[in-house]
Structure to design on (246 residues):
């Protein structure tokens, strides 16, 4: 049974205006950690598929447990919602809405969050997280804006050929650090782009990135391309990048 302390948390619904998104705005849900104090400052985890991260990934409950029981430094979570019908168009690097989404993220979302909430304003304190194509777009945001992001959580990243081609053209990536996992039962997963061996494409992306100096915390585990698998690895992913208070 879930400890009732983990359910007492603050999640704020918010909306950020945008000139880069066709709809002119984007819905957010913002987790504020226990004891949140505007006088202090906090690391921020930016989650693609925000609604899914909160509802299926249970990221707010996991965060509260890590903070209260494991001494992890309090942090903010920003879940960025997505229209599933436009998801591939926004998240895939060759999608027609991708460039606008990436620019929204860097030029509008980050300044909005850092003006409104007690967020730290250095790249080492910003973490991008995503599942499948959400992991892909997180990587491409960091590649496009290395001054803003250099820490990525990619849960079964959908690193299709177009994504690998962009990574292959990147220069030195020794400032980049990734937590990457993939399920061993994802070797023939059907997507809207066709059937892919996610184990193979994650291995290939790992090798590509490491060849350019990136650090990867990489794991292959029993699991399918579902939230039940990813949820189990969210605690480890967060602990990779967040400090433990002494």
């Amino acid at each position: 049974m879930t400890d009732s302390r983990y359910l007492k948390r603050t999640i704020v619904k918010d909306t950020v205006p945008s000139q880069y998104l066709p709809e002119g705005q984007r819905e957010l849900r913002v987790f504020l950690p226990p004891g949140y104090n505007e006088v202090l400052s906090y690391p921020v985890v930016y989650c693609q598929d925000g609604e899914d991260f909160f509802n299926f990934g249970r990221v707010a409950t996991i965060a509260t447990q890590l903070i209260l029981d494991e001494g992890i430094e309090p942090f903010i979570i920003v879940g960025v919602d997505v229209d599933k019908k436009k998801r591939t168009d926004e998240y895939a690097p060759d999608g027609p809405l991708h460039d606008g989404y990436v620019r929204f993220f860097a030029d509008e979302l980050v300044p909005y969050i850092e003006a409104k909430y007690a967020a730290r304003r250095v790249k080492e304190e910003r973490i991008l997280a995503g599942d499948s194509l959400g992991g892909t777009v997180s990587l491409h945001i960091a590649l496009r804006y290395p001054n803003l992001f250099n820490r990525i959580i990619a849960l079964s990243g959908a690193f299709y050929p177009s994504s690998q081609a962009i990574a292959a053209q990147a220069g030195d990536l020794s400032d980049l650090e990734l937590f990457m996992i993939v399920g061993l039962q994802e070797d023939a997963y059907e997507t809207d782009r066709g059937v892919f061996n996610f184990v193979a494409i994650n291995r290939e992306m790992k090798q590509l990135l490491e060849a350019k100096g990136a650090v990867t915390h990489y794991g292959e585990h029993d699991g399918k391309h579902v939230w039940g698998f990813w949820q189990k690895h969210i605690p480890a992913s967060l602990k990779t990048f967040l400090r433990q208070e002494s």
